[in-house]
């Protein structure tokens, strides 16, 4: 395992910059907020640590790209700031996210709540969920997984057409696997930053994506014509687990981060690190490093402490209003569907440590 370690000076400049305008802008954060952000360059910080590399297939090794410090972000033409008229993030669900409509609707509400806390100060709205057929996208059965895939670019065009007037961005989410073009195997997601739209699939985040019964269903599907969208009716969706919810929240916030113009982070362990494979995505934390946090704060203008508190509230608010849900195989029994937040406990402890630093 290798560690990407930057000097204290490099991290300080990446965060604060040497540009006098940006330095004085940094000084407008209150002392407590600066104490927290300055942890970025404290070598002994237990809040922020270096990026670790575990294999040659990790993102930084396989996709060399220029790093982006705060000043570069600030000066980038691709930087996007929500205007007062366009302060809503819209989420469009495509196909079901859970095995029943009710589970699916709960799931999307959990994601909405998480995004609202994460992008604190913006409004997150849900567009009416649509079936795959509504998008008129191309689809295929993947040769190696034997699973259905939908064409990411076609979905982006659909989302662009549906983008509401007050939208900062529209993000589509689906449990169906995606492909960007015929020659590619798959893609986790795709976005058009200029159009402010993105589509992300959580299909490969389910624990049973490579499950064989699912596979044989795909083989049968291959015989169907490619404009018969009925293949998506009752199509497999992964079981909703805490780890699936965590991965979905992580992907969604990382990808929306890109829409603001945040590039992949190469400074510290951070949500905005690139990831090439699931194991690397799992290693990536849910939190932003101070450099990326400053970028997002600059775009949205939130209060750092209030944002952390909102995230804690989302984690704590697990089952207070749990709805009665009818499970798939029974129409008589109903079960509680509490938000599965077990996997977020570590993240909560981390936020509490941050709050302790700012409230000291
Ligand atoms: Zn990314
Ligand atoms: Zn970062």
Q: How are the SSEs placed, and which strands pair?
A:
Elements lengths: L1 E3 L3 H9 L3 H7 L4 H7 L13 E3 L5 H4 L7 H6 L12 E7 L6 H18 L4 E8 L8 E3 L6 E4 H11 L4 E8 L2 E3 L9 E4 L4 E5 L10 H10 L20 H18 L18 H6 L6 H11 L3 H13 L7 E2 L9 E2 L8 H14 L2
Parallel strand pairs: 3-4, 3-7, 6-8, 7-10
Antiparallel strand pairs: 1-2, 5-6, 9-10, 11-12
Helix pairs in contact: 1-11, 6-9, 6-12, 12-13
The site of one zinc ion has 9 residues, from helix 11.
Question: What do you see in this structure?
Answer:
It is a single chain. This protein is of the alpha/beta class and 360 residues long. It is 37% helix and 14% strand. The chain has 13 helices and twelve strands. The strands form four sheets. It has a five-stranded mixed sheet with strand order 4-3-7-10-9, with helices on both faces. Helix 1 packs parallel to helix 11, helix 6 (101-118) packs antiparallel against helix 12 (304-316) and helix 12 runs antiparallel to helix 13. The mean pLDDT is 89. The protein binds zinc ion (ZN) (2 copies).
**Which molecules are bound in this entry?**
zinc ion
Structural class by helix and strand composition = alpha/beta
Order of strands in the sheet with most strands: 4-3-7-10-9
CATH fourth-tier homologous superfamily of the largest domain: Collagenase (Catalytic Domain)
The backbone outline, from C-alpha atoms, is globular
User: What is the correct CATH architecture of the largest domain?
Assistant: 3-Layer(aba) Sandwich
- Classify the helix fraction into a percent range: 25-40%
Largest sheet: 5 strands, mixed
The CATH topology of the largest domain is given as Collagenase (Catalytic Domain)
Number of domains: 2
| Percentage of residues in DSSP E strands | 5-15%
The count of helical stretches stands at 13
Regions with little confidence, pLDDT below 50 for 5+ residues: none
How many β-strand runs?
12
Radius of gyration: 21 Å
Supply the CATH class of the largest domain.
Alpha Beta
InterPro entries: Archaemetzincin, MetalloPept_cat_dom_sf, Pept_M54_archaemetzincn
Family: Belongs to the peptidase M54 family.
GO molecular function: metal ion binding; metallopeptidase activity
Cofactor: Zn(2+)
């Amino acid at each position: 395992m290798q560690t990407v370690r930057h000097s204290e000076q490099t991290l300080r400049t990446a965060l604060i910059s040497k540009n006098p305008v940006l330095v004085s802008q940094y000084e407008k954060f209150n002392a407590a907020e600066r104490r927290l952000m300055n942890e970025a360059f404290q070598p002994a910080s237990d809040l922020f640590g270096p990026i670790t590399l575990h294999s040659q297939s990790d993102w930084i090794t396989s996709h060399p790209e220029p790093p982006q410090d705060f000043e570069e972000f600030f000066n980038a033409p691709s930087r996007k700031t929500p205007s007062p008229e366009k302060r809503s993030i819209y989420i469009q669900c495509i196909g079901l996210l859970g095995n029943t409509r009710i589970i699916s609707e709960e799931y999307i509400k959990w994601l909405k709540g998480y995004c609202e806390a994460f992008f604190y100060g913006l409004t997150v709205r849900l567009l009416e969920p649509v079936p795959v057929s509504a998008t008129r996208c191309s689809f295929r059965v993947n040769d190696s997984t034997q699973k259905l895939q939908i064409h990411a670019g076609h979905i982006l065009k659909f989302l662009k057409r549906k983008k509401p007037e007050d939208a900062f961005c529209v993000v589509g989410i689906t449990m169906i696997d995606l492909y960007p073009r015929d020659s590619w195997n798959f893609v986790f997601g795709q976005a058009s930053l200029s159009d402010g739209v993105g589509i992300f699939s959580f299909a490969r985040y389910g624990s049973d994506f490579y499950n064989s019964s699912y596979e044989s269903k795909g083989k049968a599907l291959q015989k169907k014509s490619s404009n018969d969208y009925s293949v998506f009716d009752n199509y497999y969706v992964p079981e909703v687990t805490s780890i699936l919810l965590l991965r979905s929240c992580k992907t969604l916030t990382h990808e929306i981060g890109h829409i603001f113009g945040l590039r992949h982070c190469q400074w510290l362990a951070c949500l905005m690190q690139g990831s090439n494979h699931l194991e690397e995505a799992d290693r990536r934390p849910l939190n932003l490093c101070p450099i990326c946090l400053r970028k997002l704060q600059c775009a949205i203008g939130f209060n750092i402490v209030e944002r952390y508190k909102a995230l804690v509230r989302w984690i704590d608010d697990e089952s207070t209003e749990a709805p009665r849900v009818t499970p798939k195989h029974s129409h008589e029994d109903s079960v509680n569907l509490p938000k599965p937040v077990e996997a977020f406990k570590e993240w909560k402890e981390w936020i509490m440590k941050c709050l302790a630093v700012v409230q000291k």
